[in-house]
Design a protein that fits this description.
Length: 169
């Protein structure tokens, strides 16, 4: 019983600290997710365009490919920070929209650990068969990637609202 109360105290202290610094945390989540627009641009103009039109509109040189890969790795901290934003909102009695955005953001884990970009590229370019998955599953992975867009918009909106609120107080 004592350990349970201690855990509850730690959780309450965490959320009190989080709430005191909500503007920073929301801004961090928004900023990290905004970086994902680089990855989505590459995905759309290179991978999707290649599959649909048989032409790539963006084939970056090796240096920029590495930059895009590094940006893509910021997705993990983006998911964690955005999840905290939505968990905090839900904890305070937030709307079902926050739950949908939390689920939408965390669907990315499926894409990160199961249907990776390499598998999508392989399926779309008829490259070496990395796994025996159907092409439609590659499209599912792309749709999952695009589920970041509402989260990007919403975290930016929440950040701007928090900034406006903090400047008025």
């Amino acid at each position: 019983m004592v350990a349970k109360n201690n855990m509850r105290t730690y959780i309450e202290r965490f959320w009190a600290w989080y709430e005191r610094h909500r503007e920073f945390h929301t801004g961090l989540a928004a900023g990290l997710f905004l970086l994902q627009l680089v990855h989505l641009y590459w995905l759309t103009t290179h991978i999707v365009a290649l599959r649909l039109f048989d032409v790539s509109y963006f084939t970056p040189p090796p240096f920029w490919e590495y930059v895009i890969i590094l940006v893509d790795y910021t997705e993990i901290p983006a998911l964690i920070t955005a999840s905290l934003v939505y968990l905090n909102e839900l904890r305070k009695g937030g709307s079902k929209g926050n739950l949908w955005l939390l689920i939408s953001a965390n669907s990315q884990w499926l894409h990160i650990f199961w249907i990776t970009d390499e598998i999508v590229i392989s399926k779309f370019t008829h490259g070496p068969a990395l796994v025996a998955l159907p092409v439609w599953l590659a499209w599912v992975a792309i749709v999952i990637d695009y589920l970041e867009l509402p989260v990007i918009f919403d975290t930016c909106r929440k950040f701007l609202t928090a900034r406006r609120f903090s400047k008025n107080t």
